[in-house]
Amino acid sequence: MVLQNHNVSKPLPPDAEDQPAVKGPEDSRLPRAIREASRRRRARANAGSAAAKYALEQAMRRSRTRSSPQQLRLEMPRAQPPVSDTELVEPDQKPRPKPVPIPRETVTLPRFLERPDYKDIPTQNIVAIEPGLVETPIDYLRDGLEVEGPKMLHTLNAMKPVPLESVLPSEVSVEIKDAASDLPTHMFAVFGRQPFAKGAPKVNKQKVTLYPVHDIIFASHCAHLPKLRTSKPQKENVKLPVVPVCLPSPQTFPILSSYLYTKRVDILLSALLPAPPASLSGPLGLTSVDETIPDDFFKAQKIAYAHQVSKTFTARALLQNAMVINGVWRNVCALGVFDDRLWSAMDFAWDACLTALAFATGNPKAMIATPVEREIAAAVL
């Protein structure tokens, strides 16, 4: 397994004498926009500000949730209600179905998505890919990737994920139709953990899916991902090394991967919510610690949206969306992604989905509990 545990110690940076020589621009395989990321957007805060901002937001979050319930319990109909029985009547009368109460079950969900402690991106992971980025702050590098990422993703979209049915190879050959495209560097073999079962072990085929990726995208965003094997694919013969990646929710990996390439919050919300309103993509570009937009604005949007979708989708369908959000969140924690917009979008989607579930199950007070929230609900509904 290639992922590190959250509690492992931070990898030590390599010694200066062990670092490879810095390449010139003509030797680099990265796009120019990425290599020159440190020259652009100098007005932004330095790399250390990301950790400080994340720590501040986490502290504010914990102070708000300390007195709040940490779990949400909802009563909802079971997935498959039993067939109603028939009551026997006189021969000249039609049989009447007996009123059978719909069986219900209690679903318990975490009230908030917990955030792990912030962790820096290991410098040696970036240097192993591009030695010329040794002194480039991570924020500036991500600025360049935000420009080039959609172009990289366009290349990957022409390559469909490949499910494996046999032994995991060490490398795979791929065909790239566009010779001018940014070639992927690795193939992630994504799989999930096998559930523990008592008794003798059973021979089960592990489902593994191959996804082509660019190393610089994941190395610059995933603090828990170890240093990837060096890969320099040639356009004539593209062979990608295979990297096994065990994730809590392998089926939601494409959602997270797409966001890391595009940084499009609107596309992310489209994947997380049953019917994302277009008006949410703008404000969510800001972090929740930004004081220029009041919290009441987001609460009003959340309540209005949740009430709308609760009338369109069943509680069971909304629960499925909640599981998608939960899966993306678990993958984010496992890989160590600390992106402000990503976390803001997940927080909003989770809160909105739980509020919609509360409406759909006839218990809106479970999510609209404070006097301020009740006033907002009365104004927008």
TrEMBL record:
Residues 1-103 are annotated as: Disordered. Residues 24-37 have a biased composition (Basic and acidic residues). It comes from the Eukaryota. Residues 45-55 have a biased composition (Low complexity). This is Uncharacterized protein.
